[in-house]
């Protein structure tokens, strides 16, 4: 009795293995490349490369940086971005001033290339540490630690 069921078990096992192999091969054949160090490093903090697998290419100015989609920014950052897109009015007198990039965390450009805008921090008595930085060619960067690290914002 046991010997008669061995061929059926073997056939069932082969079917399961072939289905499993098909699924694995289909998953390995996607167009996604390996994660960059920046996106791997920030993925654990919830700030990975949201464009991965979405079919959206990362713009050249954002390559090599951690990225974040506008929809994943804090609501206060999205509100500030809406004001930037409208041209103001801005709640802080410092909004729109030239960002000097003294920390050199962003690509180097001539003075006046970047401008900074405050992102409100709930509960903060001061401007807080969060900023949006714009570049002359539609670049957009977000920092939540007062220029220590930046993420390229993808629209």
UniProtKB/TrEMBL annotation:
- Zinc as a keyword of this entry, yes or no, is no
The membrane spanning regions, by residue number, are: none
Short name of one Pfam family = Ribonuclease
Source organism, top-level taxon:
Bacteria
* Organism, scientific name: Streptomyces andamanensis
The name this protein carries in UniProt is Ribonuclease domain-containing protein
Q: Which UniProt keywords apply?
A: Hydrolase, Nuclease, Signal
Quick one: where's region Disordered?
34-60
Q: Which residues form the signal peptide?
A: 1-31
Q: Where is the composition biased (Low complexity)?
A: 34-51
Is Nucleus found in the keyword set? no
């Amino acid at each position: 009795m046991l010997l008669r069921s061995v061929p059926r078990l073997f056939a069932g096992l082969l079917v399961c293995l072939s289905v499993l192999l098909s699924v694995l091969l289909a998953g390995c054949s996607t167009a996604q490349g390996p994660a960059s160090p920046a996106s791997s490093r920030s993925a654990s903090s919830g700030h990975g490369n949201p464009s991965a697998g979405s079919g959206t290419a990362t713009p050249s100015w954002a390559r090599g940086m951690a990225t974040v989609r506008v929809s994943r920014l804090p609501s206060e950052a999205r509100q500030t971005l809406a004001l930037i897109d409208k041209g103001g009015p801005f709640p802080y007198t410092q909004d729109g001033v030239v960002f000097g990039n003294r920390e050199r965390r962003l690509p180097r450009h001539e003075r006046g290339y970047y401008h900074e805008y405050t992102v409100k921090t709930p509960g903060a008595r001061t401007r807080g540490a969060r900023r949006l930085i714009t570049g002359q060619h539609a670049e957009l960067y977000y920092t939540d630690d007062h220029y220590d690290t930046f993420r390229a914002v993808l629209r």
